[in-house]
Amino acid sequence: MMAVPRPEWLTEGATALAVDRSGGKNLEIVITARGDTLDAPFDTQFGRAPTLILYDLEQEEFFVIDNRHCAEAAQGAGLQAAQGVVRLGAVAVVTGHCGPKALQLLSSAGVAVYSAAANTVAEALAQFREGRLSPLAQGEGRS
pTM here? Predict the structure, then answer.
């Protein structure tokens, strides 16, 4: 699998999370990463991950989202990233840890959050596909 060209609904730069998905179906998950391929290291910190991989489970394609504007924020990195994920319309997030406020926002928007222990994005994706991840519930988020 390889990255596909940037879709027209995904804007450039730091505003890459501001998207318009009106009318489109969505079977996509977000996986936190420290690189721009499926072989990239999996990042265990949701808001501070420099890269988010938006993976389309149906098309088996992925898009790379630069999350540095959230990761480098003085505060509120998790909430900013969560707002972006909600705008993307992803059905789930696969990460290591998610702060309580970000977890609450994602959960209230219907986005499932799963905790993984993986070395690479591909490994985290495989764990998700195989049903080996447990969803984080309210109260389990860590700052």
Answer: 0.81
